[in-house]
Amino acid sequence: MAFLDNSGDIILDAVLTDLGRSSMARGTFRVTKYALGDDEIDYSLYNVNTASAYTDLEILQTPVFEAHTRGNSANINYGLTSHTRLDLLYLPELSVNKKNTSFAQPTGSMYYLAVNTETYNKLITAPTATNVTFGDSKYVLTAGQHSDTMLVIESGLDTTDVSGDASNRGSYILANNLLDSSFNLYYDSRFISTAMSAPPTGFFKNTVAGSPLINLQPLLSVTATSATPSLENYSTTNIRGIPNLMVENPTVSATNYSAIAGPRGSVMATNFTILNEMATNATGTRSRKYSLYGSVSQALFGGNGDLYDYVDTTIYVVGATSTATIQLPLRIIRYAGT
After folding, report:
1. pLDDT digits (tens, 9 = 90+) for 33-50
2. How much of the chain, in percent, has pLDDT values that exceed 70?
3. CA dihedral for 163, 167, 168, 170, sign (positive or negative)
4. Domains of the chain: which residue ranges?
């Protein structure tokens, strides 16, 4: 990734994908798809306190990413989308829900996925002076586990400008066709074999009195629908969206249980199954993938002698309708002995 110097005159920098260049060489080139992105732009630089000719000057002069491609990927993290309506003031965002003790929470920015029960038990052991592990199950996902700790993501309008009541859900989400009935989840198939989804009978709502009614388990394994050309070695899985009916209540705020401040659309829950070769206990054979793509025999949690193998990867989740995107760093970790 490189930047282009910009004095304010660069409007668009574009490249062809490998497939596009191949088509051009054959004389069959025709534009059928394109992607636009503005990952580098900080819109908070828009200055309403200056003369109109200069309000967006800093934005226009921001150095822009040099357009490039890797395979068929434009490498855009946050692509621009098109909507036919011109009066949309808010668009859905994806947010991880950390409000429930069975919902996975990160350590720093990293989510931990224990490859087996042995590793899980080590990680949730109460911390000591020499062993600074997590001491709580909410910080550790367990590979292949269909209940207990799970990763939960909500889609909705994360703003306090609009109340998250049922009426606004209808007006802002449903009426504008912004409901994510499903989510596309992308994972590295070198390490992860399958992802999971909440059952069709799942629910996420509250009572008239404001008490939560939440059941997103047991998680069901979902077969990957395809490879992901834009992400090398990644597979795509379609995850079910459960209607998010957690609405504002005058007695108990819905944000006590929801990560979205405004009207809520849907919610998804997931966990992962790891390739068998990476899930062996400490007495088993270590997969070469740990040394090829990660680190082995690391004392990550203090000086008690416990060693771990791990591989860091990234999970991508995209709302199937809203195209709202979230990226989650995931550490796949295995207890390797002492």
Report:
1. 667 777 777 777 878 787
2. 88
3. positive
4. 3-65, 93-337
**Strand spans (E) along the chain:** 3-4, 64-65, 93-96, 111-114, 140-142, 151-156, 182-188, 192-197, 203-206, 212-215, 220-222, 226-227, 234-240, 242-245, 264-270, 272-274, 295-298, 307-319, 325-337
What is the enclosing helix (H) or strand (E) of 290? helix 288-293
Tell me the pTM: 0.82
Tokens of 260: 């979205």
Per-residue pLDDT, averaged over 11-19, amounts to: 70
Q: Kindly state the greatest CA–CA separation across the chain.
A: 69
pLDDT of 8 above 70: no
Cis amide leading into 218 (omega within 30): yes
Tokens standing for 82? 């098109």
The letter for the amino acid at 88 is L
Closest CA to 268 of 307, 220, 230, 336: 220
